[in-house]
């Protein structure tokens, strides 16, 4: 269960790093959550940084261990976290979508991001550090294509309560993962995936092109169908959306 232990720290470098250090020292129990008000070195995907206005947003990481999760099923982690966030936002009256692999969008604006760092042993994922940044009460994003719960609903949200609600949602979807309901999770994820019903612009190492998402496989790879009918498979580092958020 996520949230067996919840630690609040006002300011730190990164909640993911904080957990990683506790993992190294062997002092962390399954389900521990760290929430912070301010990060000085927040990490994003693909080595980018994550900036978040202090005291206004959710900065959240949790540590979960797995007894039997194969690397070949690693995308189930993206499913369960994205779906928990979408469901949480839905309760606030916000209709959000997923941008592969796990960005959370409202229209074309990013409202949340997820960074999952796995500890692997042979063909299994032994544990995961799941970092979530959710824009809550921030109003201005200086040119970034981003939004927040406040901007979408006009209402301020209590971040502590929101953190507890997020934990509840994460546990609902984690339970489905635990009992091996990967197909149910995947179906719901695919339905909410931006670009699965429409053509979007992509950029790989060589060119840019329009394509539609055909599938995201269990290892997380993106299967695209180009306008000329050609099908291609990409890993996270090999492709990006042309319209980067
Ligand atoms: C992304 O969209 O690039 C992922 C952003 C993930 C940000 C969160 S905030 C809490 C946790 N700690 C970090 O350093 N990163 C994640």
What are the key terms here?
five-stranded antiparallel β-sheet, single chain, seven-stranded mixed β-sheet, 12 strands, alpha+beta
Mean pLDDT comes to 96
**Any low-confidence stretches, pLDDT <50, length ≥5?**
none
Topology order in helix (H) and strand (E) letters: EHEEHEEEEHHHEEEEE
**Share of helical residues:** 25-40%
Ligand species: biotin
Distance between the termini: 33 Å
Secondary structure elements and pairings:
Layout: E1 5-12, H1 15-25, E2 32-39, E3 58-70, H2 75-91, E4 97-99, E5 103-106, E6 109-121, E7 124-134, H3 149-153, H4 159-178, H5 182-191, E8 200-204, E9 208-216, E10 222-226, E11 231-234, E12 239-241
Parallel strand pairs: 1-2
Antiparallel strand pairs: 2-3, 3-7, 4-5, 5-6, 6-7, 8-9, 8-12, 9-10, 10-11
Your description of this structure?
The protein is α+β, with helices and mostly antiparallel strands and 245 residues long. Helix content is 26%, strand content 35%. It has five helices and twelve strands. It has helices at 15-25, 75-91, 149-153, 159-178, 182-191; strands at residues 5-12, 32-39, 58-70, 97-99, 103-106, 109-121, 124-134, 200-204, 208-216, 222-226, 231-234, 239-241. A seven-stranded mixed β-sheet has the order 1-2-3-7-6-5-4, with helices on both faces. Strand 10 and strand 11 (231-234) form a beta hairpin. Helix 2 crosses helix 4 (159-178) and helix 2 packs across helix 5 (182-191). The longest helix is centred in the last third of the chain and has 20 residues, at 159-178. The chain is globular. The two termini are 33 Å apart. The mean pLDDT is 96. Bound molecules: biotin. Residues 14-16, 39, 42-45, 48, 50, 59-61, 103, 113-115, 131-133 line the site of biotin.
């Amino acid at each position: 269960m996520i949230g067996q232990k919840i630690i609040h720290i006002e300011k730190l470098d990164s909640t993911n790093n904080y957990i990683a250090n506790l993992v190294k020292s062997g002092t962390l129990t399954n389900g521990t959550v760290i929430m912070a008000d301010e990060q000085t070195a927040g990490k994003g995907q693909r080595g980018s940084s994550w900036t978040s206005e202090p005291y206004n947003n959710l900065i959240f990481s949790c540590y979960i261990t797995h007894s039997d999760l194969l690397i070949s099923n690693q995308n189930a982690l993206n499913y369960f976290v994205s779906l928990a966030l979408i469901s949480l936002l839905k309760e606030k009256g916000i209709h959000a979508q997923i941008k592969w692999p796990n960005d959370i969008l409202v229209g074309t604006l990013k409202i949340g991001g997820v960074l999952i760092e796995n500890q692997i042993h042979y063909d299994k994922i032994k544990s995961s550090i799941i970092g979530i940044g959710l824009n809550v009460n921030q109003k201005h994003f200086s040119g970034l294509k981003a939004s927040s719960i406040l901007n979408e609903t006009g209402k301020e949200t209590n971040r502590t309560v929101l953190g507890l609600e997020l934990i509840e949602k994460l546990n609902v979807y984690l339970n489905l993962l635990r009992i091996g309901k990967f197909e149910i999770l995947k179906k719901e994820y695919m339905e909410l995936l931006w670009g699965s019903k429409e053509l979007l612009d992509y950029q790989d190492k060589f060119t840019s092109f329009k394509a539609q998402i055909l599938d995201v496989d269990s290892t997380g790879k993106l299967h695209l169908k180009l306008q000329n009918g050609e099908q291609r498979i990409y890993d996270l580092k090999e492709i990006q959306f042309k319209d980067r958020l």
